Structures are given as structure tokens and as C-alpha cells.
Amino acid sequence: MTIAAVTSYDIRFPTSRELDGSDAMNPDPDYSAAYVVLRAEDGSEGHGFTFTIGRGNEVCRAALDALAPMILGQPLDDLGELYRRLTHDSQIRWLGPEKGVMHLAAAALVNAAWDLRAKRAGLPLWALLSSLSPDELVDLVDWRYLTDALTPAAARDLLLSAADQRETRASFLKRHGYPAYTTSAGWLGYPDEKIERLAREAVDAGFQMIKLKVGADLADDVRRLALARAVVGPGIRIAVDANQRWDVPDAIAWTTALAKYDPWWIEEPTSPDDVLGHAAIRRAVHPVRVATGEHVANRVVFKQLLQAGAIDVVQLDACRVAGVNENVAILLLAAAYGKPVCPHAGGVGLCEVVRHFSFFDFVAVSGSLDDRVIEYVDHLHEHFVDPATVVGGRYLAPAAPGFSTQMRPESLARYAYPEGRAWS
Amino acid sequence: MTIAAVTSYDIRFPTSRELDGSDAMNPDPDYSAAYVVLRAEDGSEGHGFTFTIGRGNEVCRAALDALAPMILGQPLDDLGELYRRLTHDSQIRWLGPEKGVMHLAAAALVNAAWDLRAKRAGLPLWALLSSLSPDELVDLVDWRYLTDALTPAAARDLLLSAADQRETRASFLKRHGYPAYTTSAGWLGYPDEKIERLAREAVDAGFQMIKLKVGADLADDVRRLALARAVVGPGIRIAVDANQRWDVPDAIAWTTALAKYDPWWIEEPTSPDDVLGHAAIRRAVHPVRVATGEHVANRVVFKQLLQAGAIDVVQLDACRVAGVNENVAILLLAAAYGKPVCPHAGGVGLCEVVRHFSFFDFVAVSGSLDDRVIEYVDHLHEHFVDPATVVGGRYLAPAAPGFSTQMRPESLARYAYPEGRAWS
To answer: What does the alpha-carbon distance between residue B122 and residue B136 come to, in Å, rounded to a whole number?
Structure first.
């Protein structure tokens, strides 16, 4: 069975009208998806997307169209090979390598191929991945540039050591779900009263952790964090997120000023490219944890963040790196270095897809839930055929076959940019 | 005076037909340019481009079109502000930040704006930059994420200390030019006899340094390097270039095996994202120098390569980072850390433009020629209005007003992809 057709879409939601999603670097995002449908010869479909925040989504769509010829006619049974075809074309590689627009587009295509494969297998993606042998999982990874930190043989050993308890842990997740935290309370554009109300509602709903955006104004941040801490009490974790706003010295000073309200982690304190900067910040702000990942370009940068002891929390993103395959590499690296993975979600569709990685991580890779939590934002789920469901502060186990990447046809029509009804 | 029109082009040269430019990672490049013309209200033009190697050039053109609205109607007198508009749009920034396709396109636009400004000033770009005060130069830089390594105040001091000898050094360059090295002898696809002949011709032509591509087969590399060393003798420097082919352990083993033929530097031994990997390689292969830069995404990664002591040679690229402004930052960082800048050239048009950076560096930044040399490949210069000229192994000083970025109209027509005559 091979890939017979690739169709791309530019989908945008006019979220900037409400200030949902506002932070110190992204004041007015229009959550968007460069979206792709793969059709196999027998008519079965796989859906995938990469997440953007508006302008430039058309460039990602152009990148999807540029990559489509690489996978047309290719078999669906070796998704390691398919992934490497998308990231190692000798001419296209010049445009990255493995970063930026071309890598975002590769993510959409890789994820669509996995959605197709999981649907054909009749399994949710996390269960499909959890059914693969350690050797099959190791073969999904592009090991180039990783072997100074983790070899394929060491990764296989790590997976083997987690293999015998896979069924027990899968059963646990089906019964109890996976811990979530919510960012919905803390967007930068919200007034204090709204933050207080939403923080209270989050705790009442069962969340053990919330997140606030910081970085625009220190006095505002201190006041908001103090308010939130007063509302939730000392037993609830509050993460803070600066969205790359600071230079290294600013990050240290600002985080230190917030420390008395016991923030659980400082997220994206500086440039996502700055491994050494994160390491310097982490040394200075201990015991506040350092987290990053949603803008980390690829597995090579994650490797270094771990080698340098630069982060406490690995925030993989489903669509920034090249989809399922590269995220398997990142899960393996995190497990090898003993760091928890807490995926970036929010946006549009990210909650739907990243939960598959965390479920797979617990079942087959790290085998641990310690300090692991998936971001949740209650936003735009209605557009998806298999939406994320959070109950009592926990993600329920996805049960539908596929990767939960598929949008409803009526949403694809309404939010098509610029011709859809939402934009006219 | 403001920017009144932005016109983009997809230009490709069918270089893969001859194996010119072949290396271990790029076996069959079609040297290409996503090219842009800015028109001011009075009809004066600035030309700029980003270099690619073929497929995907249309995605860079789409990125140019996506960025064009950011600069239409903007004034030409503050190119620091123009550059920041191109790299800090809150929605577009998501697609990088500051890397990959969007950053390549920003480079083309920034460079076109400088070409326009230099033409209007009646000066070659290097002379225009060398006429700016330290404060004006410092204001061109985006200091975000740099201040842990270099502050604006320290950069100003550095520029001030080089200011009083500017005229003397400019006169020197006009008389004597700037040292070049040639890569034309060593493409991976060439047979031994051709390498020997070209190496001999390079020395006869006055080059003091040549470069060979390595990384596909160790036995071949040892034989080719031995041949080249025998031809040129011990007094000529031979750099070797692996084009990112290796993991860290391979890079160390391979470079060690080549060391007895006294390579001057090993270039791109591994992933351009791998700061810590380059640092490990450099420690292991000393006294062979480590060089990288043509694929380094932005100033933040260059900053870390310098902070970590990961490289001996800074190979800036005119079009990978965001053009003139970001390269001013990289020249300042390199000078602050005492490392020579030896720009990446070859490709199409890169020799024409990078020489302006090296000339400016000597006149106004580092003030030094020690171990500094500009890459030269004798290829595709005939398509440019103000082609690079190398005589006796030295680049002559560019004299025409502008940034030497402008292609001849007949070349733009013939190599337009896919409609130009070269492709039909």
C-alpha cells in the first residue's frame, strides 16, 4: 500500500479577536494549521498538521507542497524511511537543516502518515507505538548526530527494561488517565479578576497545577503570581512561562524576584537556541526548575540541553520537530538522562496529539509518571473528530484509531484561509 | 524615501549537470537564488537574494512574498528598524524563530535594502558600513539574547578602539586586496587527476590556501589529501570540509586519521546546531582547527560557539542569517572573542557579497588580517553586474556603489524557474 495523493490546506482561527493565547512574545495569535491529508491507494486517509499562529501559514503550506513529491508513491510500511526521505533530501536540507518552515511541514506529513497507519491498524497511536518491539522503535529514529549522547544499542536496552510492564501500565492509563495542567487561567491579556476566577475554577476542576504567562512587566507578574498563589494555596503547583522574553541576566533577575511565590518551573526564559544560556539560568535560579521545548528546533538541540544539564523539564512539541519519529528520539533521550517530558500543548490540535506521546512514554519508555504532566488549554477542541478529554484534571486515554489529528470537514471549510466563511 | 514595491524571483542554475559543488552531503546541487528587487518611490532599486541549492527555492520565494507587507511603505533611513520588523513579527516569528526559510528570506530583503541604500549613497557596501560611527553600527544590531556575551557598550568600545586607523586600512585594501582561498580544486565528485591539476593551478595563481571536500570515504580522503599535499608542498594551507557528515565520535576519528597531512581546519565536522559537539571535537583534534558557520542558524548559535570555545574560525554566511545587520553582530562577537572570520562563499553570488563583510571587518571591526581569508569559487560570477574579482589569490576591493547583489537582467530571464530558457 502506497501514498497516492497529498492535499494541503491553510486553516486559520481568528483567535486574536479574544486575546486567548496572548503572552509576552505573542500578543495577538491567530491559531492556525498548515494541514495535510494523505490518501492511500485504497482511499484510506491520514490527516496531519503543523501548528502556527497566523501569518506565514501559507509558507508552511507551500513547504507541504514542496515535500509532497518526496512521499508520493512511497510505501506505508516503513515510516522510518518515509521520515528520513522528508528530512534528508539533499537540496531541501539546505533550507534548514531540520529546522524552521521545512521541518514544520515535515512534521505535518510524518504525523499524517502515522495517523493513516494507526487507523489502518485500528489502534490509537499511543497503543500502536506501544505495540512495537524495542528494535522496531529504535529503527524509527534518525540516529545521526545523537550517538555521542545515546547509541541505538543503549536505547534498545532502555526500551527492553521497560517492556515487561507495558500491559500493566496501559491498563492503569485506561482506568486513571494521565495528569494535566491548565494554562487557560494565565494568559497575559487577562485582567486580575479573571485570573483569580479561572485559577479557582481550575483547582475545583481537579487540576494540581496551573501556569501563568510572565515577562511583560515585573510588577504585574509579581502581583498576578501572588494573587494566584493566594487563591490556590501552597499545595498546587504554579508554573510560569516567559515565552523567550529575556536575555540571560534578565531571566535570572526576574525569576529570582518571583521565587518567593514558589513557581514550579520557569518556562522559555530565553532563546530556545541558547543551550548555554539555559544552563546558566538553571544554575542561578535553583530550586526553580527550568523548562523549554516548544520552539526547540530538533533532536540535536534537545540532546545538548540534556548534555549540558540546562533543563529540568523536556517540553516536546508534536509539530515543531519532525513529528512522531523525532519525538520518539526525544522521549528516548529524556529517559536516558532521567528528565520528565511534559509536552507543549494549547494552540490548535496540540492537546489532541501530544497526549499520545505521553501515554506511550509511560507505557513503553520512561515507565514513570513522576513530575510528568501534559499541558491543557480548553480551546478549539470542537474542531476535531477525536477531541482531547480532560476529567478531574487528567487526560482520558484516547481510544479512537489514529493520531487524533483529523479536523471535522465543516471546520476545514469554515476556517479555510482566506476563502472560508470565518474570514469573509 | 520609502519602499514602494517588492518583486520576488525564483532563479536556478542547472549546476548538478557538471558535479560542480558536489560534497558529502550535497551530491547534486542546482545553485539557486530566491531573489528580490526593492523599488523606492523615486524608482531607485535594491537587489538581494538568499542562496539555496535547488528544490524548495519556491518556498523561500513564498517567504519573501509573506514578508513583503512588513516593509512596504517603510522608510529606508533606519535599517536597524527594518531588520527588526522582518525578524520580530509576532506571528511570523513562530515559524523560526530566526532560522530556516523565513530567516533566509529576511536575509534577502535586508540585503536588498542595504544594496539600495549603498547605491543611493554612491558607495560600495563595505565603504558605507566603514563610514558609520560606532554608535550607528551598534544600533544596527538586535542585541536580544547577546548581552550575556557582549553588551552594546562593550561593542561600542571595541569599535572605537579600531576607529582611528580606518582610513589607513581602507587604503591598504584598495592597494592590496584581501586574501582568498579556493575550493574549486576539491569537489568530491572530481577524479584524482583533476584535483592534482587544479591544486597546482591554484598555487600557480597565487592562492596560499585551498580546500578539499571529505567525508564520504576515509581511504579516498586520505589518498586525495596526500596527493594534494604532495602537489602544493608544506607551505600552502589545505583546509578540509566534511559538510556535516559525521557524528562526534566519527569526526574525531576521521580528522585524527587525516592529521598527518596537516589540514589547516576541519570544516562542518558535524551538525551546525551542535555547539557542544563542536567543542568536544575541537578539544580532541587540536592542533587541527575547527571551523563552521554556513549553516549556523543565527547570532545566538554563533554566540554559543564562541562562549563554549567550540570553534577556531567563524564562517559567517551572507544569506543564512538575516543579512547585513546580523552579520555585523557576528563580526562584533568574533572580534570580542578574538576569533578570525573567514566567510563562506561559493554558491551563487556569495563571493560577490561576503567580501564586503571581510573588508568592513578589517577596516572597522577586528582591524586584523591574521589567519583571515575569504572563500573563493570561480563559478557563476558572469551573472552579476559587479562580479567578484580575485587576482594573485586576493580579492580586489569592490568599487561599484551597492552590495554587488545585482544579477544581470539577461541572467534573471534565462534562469527563471521553471519558465526560463535554461530549464525549457
So the answer is: 19
- Beta bridge partners, B234, equal none
Q: How far apart are CA A9 and CA A406, in angstroms?
A: 13
User: In Å, how far is A404's CA from the nearest CA of chain B?
Assistant: 23
Is A397 in CB contact (< 8 Å) with chain B? Answer: no
Residue B325, φ and ψ in degrees, nearest 5: -60, -50
pLDDT, tens only, B61-119: 999 999 999 999 999 999 999 999 999 999 999 999 999 999 999 999 999 999 999 99
Is B276 at the interface with chain A, CB within 8 A?
A: yes
pLDDT tens sequence across B337-358: 999 999 999 899 999 999 999 9
Q: Calculate the alpha carbon distances from B215 to A138, A365, B211, B243, B269 in Å.
A: 25, 34, 13, 8, 9
- Pairwise CA distance, residues B323 & B46, whole Å: 14
Q: What per-residue string of b and e applies to B275-306 under the rule 16 or more CB within 10 Å gives b?
A: bbbbbbbbebbeebbbbbbbbbbbbbbbbbbb
- A100: enclosing H helix or E strand: helix A100-121
User: At how many degrees (to 10) do helices A218-232 and A192-204 cross?
Assistant: 30
Strands ordered across the beta sheet of A45-52: A3-12, A32-40, A45-52
Q: Is the pLDDT of residue A19 over 70?
A: no
B272 reaches A (C-beta below 8 A) = yes
Q: In which region does residue B346 sit, left (phi positive, over 0), alpha (psi from -120 to 50) or beta (all else)? A: left
Provide ipTM, 2 decimals.
0.97
* CATH of B166-410 among 3.20.20.450, 1.20.58.760, 3.20.20.120, 3.30.1450.10: 3.20.20.120
Nearest by CB to B56, which of A52, A58, A92?
A: A92
The letter for the amino acid at A390 is: V
Which of A56, A96, A145 comes nearest B274 by C-beta? Answer: A145
Instruction: Evaluate if residue A159 carries a pLDDT over 90.
Output: yes
The residue behind cell 513530575 is: A371
